[in-house]
Amino acid sequence: MLPSLVTLTNPLFKSNCYILYQNGHAIVIDPSSTDELLHLLTQNKLTLDKILLTHEHYDHIAGITALRAAYPHAPVAACAACAQRMVDPYYNHSSSFDVYLYFLNGERPAVPTPPFYPAKPTVIIPPSYKENWQDYVLTFQQTPGHSPAGICILLEHNSLSAQAPLLFSGDSLLPSGKPYLGFNGHSEADYRAVTLPWLRSLPANTQVYSGHGQPFLLGEKLLELFA
Ligand SMILES: [Fe+2]
């Protein structure tokens, strides 16, 4: 049985928060939303098994403090670099976020973004790691480039299912193809050396759920990436 998947897109940041749930258990990926996210979890009486972060940028973690307050026992998992960088407003970009919003929305927000100091994750994800969740296997893969703290999360059924894998790519793979390589810590060399070969090793029918925009098939984008 497929897990339910809900996408919440933050109206200001245009970033996607994903909620996967099955058998009353849920995973939240990139909690950029707050009220809508909490409403969905409570309305569906979901046990929050874990909160996963694809990277440290503010538009992907802005709702994490409220979510942790509501679900204090839910583990928060991120890679080691994300754990280091997310707690610093310079590296999580909250200290300069209004400039980003100006370019994104054409205007600065009515209320300036304050520096964001979230708590550290409770679980560090190893560089290449798998774990089971419900009927699925989750693969966590470091995907540097957009950020040195980038990871992708692959969801595959744990049986010999014909079901296509789902890839939660954060900002490591966007609907436009190439990731944005302009923030501090970015590296096109790392993207080419580490991230691209891994993405190209995945099945072409992998359905990609990116940090921004609509879902797409991995095979439609692979040829465009730094071709
Ligand atoms: Fe980002």
Outline the structure in words.
- With 227 residues, the protein is α/β, with parallel strands linked by helices.
- It has one domain: Metallo-beta-lactamase, Chain A, CATH 3.60.15.10.
- 24% of the residues lie in helices and 27% in strands.
- The strands form two sheets. It has a six-stranded mixed β-sheet with strand order 1-2-3-4-5-6. It has a six-stranded mixed β-sheet with strand order 7-8-9-10-11-12.
- The protein is globular and about 50 Å long.
- The model has no long low-confidence stretch (mean pLDDT 93).
- Residues 55, 57, 146-147, 171 line the site of fe (ii) ion.
- Fe (ii) ion binds at residues 55, 57, 146-147, 171.
Question: What is this structure, in a nutshell?
Answer:
The chain has about 230 residues and is of the alpha/beta class. It has seven helices and twelve strands.
Tally of individual helices? 7
CATH superfamily: Ribonuclease Z/Hydroxyacylglutathione hydrolase-like
Number of strands: 12
Helicity, in percent? Answer: 10-25%
- The H/E string reads EEEHEHHEHHEEEEEHEEH
Shape: globular
Summarize the main sheet. 6 strands, mixed
* Low-pLDDT regions: none
Bound molecules: fe (ii) ion
CATH class: Alpha Beta
Query: Under CATH, the topology is which?
Result: Metallo-beta-lactamase, Chain A
Mean pLDDT rating: 93
CA-based gyration radius: 17 Å
Beta-strand content bin = 25-35%
Number of domains: 1
CATH structural architecture: 4-Layer Sandwich
Keywords, separated by commas or semicolons:
227 residues; alpha/beta; Metallo-beta-lactamase, Chain A; 6-stranded mixed β-sheet; binds fe (ii) ion
